[in-house]
Amino acid sequence: MEIKNKKTAALWQFVKFGMVGAFNTILNYVIYNLCYYAFHADAQIANFVGFMISVLSAFLLQSKFVFRQDENAEKRVWWKVLIKTYISYSVTGLFLTALLLWLWLDVIDLGSHLGGACEWLAGLGINFEPKDLATSLAPLLNMVITIPLNFIINKFWAYRQKKPDGKAE
Predict the structure, then answer these.
(1) Quick check: helix, strand or coil at residue 3?
(2) Environment class of 94 (CB within 10 Å of its CB; exposed 0-12, middle 13-18, buried 19+)
(3) Distance between CA 34 and CA 37 in Å, rounded?
(4) Contacts of 1 (CB under 8 A, 6+ apart)
(5) For 65, 69, 88, 152, which has the most beta carbons within 10 A of its beta carbon?
């Protein structure tokens, strides 16, 4: 029966991670687009600003709701977990997304493939230049790759606790 409870607990943890992640994804996306469109920042700078703010939010929410501290395990040091959280998200949410943005926008030139979508949107009264639509869609494409990686890295490294017997949780 313990295996079923562990599976249920792990599934529920992933669901909570997804809910926190959805909030932070929206936060990151809003900040990214605000920086890009309102402040005319470069896509990479907009990505960085969105990253910094959303990872801090992720740390606060995950610590409270997702990866709660096990009182029977070694106590976490909050600033070490924060640093590990920034490192883990740097791998996927900063460096990988920067690489993927470059891939989507410069190598593949996603905008050159979105002319039909821009025409369709224009028919709905929404006007996008293909380059701008590609710049807005690229972070969404990145999420398909980065979200599963973020969960694994956070669960098994950033928020991991050792039991009194020295084994990881």
Answers:
(1) helix
(2) buried
(3) 5
(4) none
(5) 88
What confidence score (pLDDT) does residue 1 get? 45
| Cα–Cα distance, 16 to 86 (Å, whole number) | 19
pLDDT in tens, 29-82: 999 999 999 999 999 899 889 989 999 999 999 999 999 888 888 888 999 999
Does residue 2 have a pLDDT over 60?
A: no
Q: How many CB atoms lie under 10 A from the CB of residue 98?
A: 16
| CA 139 to chain CA centroid, nearest Å | 10
Q: How far apart are CA 169 and CA 164, in angstroms?
A: 10
The structural domains of the chain, with segments of one domain joined by +, span: 2-158
CA angle 99, 137, 118 (to 5 degrees): 135
Per the document, the length of the chain is: 169
